[in-house]
Amino acid sequence: MSFRTHLESVVNQVDGALACSVMGFDGISVDTLQKEDAAELELNGAWVEYANLLGQLRQAAETLKTGEVQEVSVNSERVLTLMRLITPEYFLVLALRADGNYGKGRYVLRVIAPKIRAEL
Amino acid sequence: MSFRTHLESVVNQVDGALACSVMGFDGISVDTLQKEDAAELELNGAWVEYANLLGQLRQAAETLKTGEVQEVSVNSERVLTLMRLITPEYFLVLALRADGNYGKGRYVLRVIAPKIRAEL
């Protein structure tokens, strides 16, 4: 099953998008779309680490009764990374340039996550 | 040294703010301002977990050359949590209601972090 159309839709709608991926919590990408000008970024390595940490955060939030963690963002000097849960096994990752449209990125992930969930 | 004035400024400027805190990476709060209507949230427990995870993420990002992690956000169904590095030892945490002004929260933390850094 390909999620390419959804990933293209995300990357095309959000200014500054570098790459978008559907990933499992095991750190393995189901499908990834990476823009050519982002090729120098070792994003896969980062996302494997984030998958691990997102899993831990989810457990932390469950025990703390603030509701299930739906979205995690890790922003460094050059790259903004937005992650959104799709199911308990899979999540969406969007990497943006630091000057990218962060609010639009959050919105688009929120809208597209249920569409991908329906196809998983 | 008290950071109360800065914390009040953050909480008053951001719609939906529940609490704001200056914390060490050891999970100990230097100063915390929690609104009365947020008293039911066991926020301190959450922040200790987040401090630990933020430390791990910082290390992950350093090895991955996307630049130092400056900001991490963990958003659940009911609470948005924004964290911003002040120094390698301390960070700011802002908890918002899920319908709070997230963009304003990011902005205010970015502006206030250097002011608190100057006093540490």
Structural Rg of chain A: 13 Å
How many helix segments of chain A?
Answer: 3
The figure for the number of domains of chain A is 1
Largest sheet features of chain A: 5 strands, antiparallel
What fold name goes in the CATH topology slot of chain A? Beta-Lactamase
Helix and strand arrangement:
2 copies of one chain form a homodimer.
Chain A: H1 4-13, E1 17-24, E2 29-34, H2 43-63, E3 69-76, E4 79-85, E5 90-97, H3 102-119
Antiparallel strand pairs in A: 1-2, 1-5, 3-4, 4-5
List keywords for this structure.
Beta-Lactamase; homodimer; alpha+beta; 41% helix; 120 residues; 5-stranded antiparallel β-sheet; 3 helices
Descriptive account of the structure:
Chain A has helices at residues 4-13, 43-63, 102-119, and strands at 17-24, 29-34, 69-76, 79-85, 90-97. The radius of gyration of chain A is 13 Å and the shape is globular. A five-stranded antiparallel sheet of chain A has the order 2-1-5-4-3, with helices on both faces. Chain A has one domain (4-119): 2-Layer Sandwich (Beta-Lactamase). In chain A, a hairpin with a 4-residue loop joins strand 4 (79-85) and strand 5 (90-97). Chain A starts with a helix and ends with a helix. By secondary structure, chain A is an alpha+beta fold. At the A-B interface, helix 2, strand 3 and helix 3 of A face helix 2, strand 3 and helix 3 of B. Strand 3 of chain A pairs antiparallel with strand 3 (69-76) of chain B, so a sheet runs across the interface.
